[in-house]
Amino acid sequence: MDEVLQKVGALSCFSNPHDVVKLGGGLTNINLLVHDGGKKFVVRLGEDIPEHGVMRWNELVISKAASVAGFSPEVTHSEKGVMVIGFIDGQTFTEADVRKPENLFRIVEMMGKAHREIGTCLTQPIVAFWPYHVNRSYIERLALDGSVHQKALPALRAQNNALEKATGPVDLVVGHNDLLAANIIDDGDRLWLIDWEYGGFNSPLFDLAGLASNNGLAEDQERSMITQYFDSDADLHWRSFSALKCASLMRETLWSMTSEIHSEIKEDFGKYTYENMEKLKSALAEFGQI
After folding, report:
1. Digit-coded pLDDT (tens) for 224-247
2. Domain range spanning residue 47?
3. For an engineered disulfide with 249, which of 1, 167, 231, 280 has Cβ 3.0 to 4.6 Å away?
4. pTM value surpassing 0.90
5. CATH number of the domain residue 228 falls in
């Protein structure tokens, strides 16, 4: 922690950083709350993570665009391995918060606006986040790295290919692509989105699918969410949505399998892999009935 504090103290954006506190979460970076000049900031420390496709330059570009568009806190400073953003004083959502009807409505409303507006604020090129390509990359790397899950990989590869075919043509928006509850903050007046590590061009359905799979939404909530977002019958989008929900769960499973090998953070990724694999099996079974 002393090394981290020294790094924070040396940042040119601060005059007298103090009361530095490590924040929770952050499985791919270190997040610190810093007080300076009567204001609060979050310092995000993290390098590129090739095995997860995390490129900090891409995260920075999208974070700036999301801030300009009004959906994320201001980026006040950046340098290699460091991004400083304004601190949002509010409630970090839990999965139970996301499932509350009044909150889910607000989240979907925010995501629709974010999808329409963030792209117009980009000043540099960004990457695409095509979940099926992401999944293939994970599968091939896991095979090369000698993952303990080798026997599961051929079936996952075949399922991924079938899901991509079932998804069909898609529209492209700037997606968040990691809609965990902890990436949504309510300041009492409005919602904020944070953590654009996996941001990139994608189908808007993937964010909706991720919101559903990451937060345990019931089918009636999923259908209501799709109807609200597209202002049309959910059945028109149901097959593609369901395929992408499976892709989202597969991605989370493969992310965890990869973290079992590469992560230096003390987390029970084996347990997380098992939990997501069970969710994926259930989702694939449901998809097979469509």
Report:
1. 999 999 999 999 999 999 999 999
2. 2-86
3. 280
4. yes
5. 3.90.1200.10
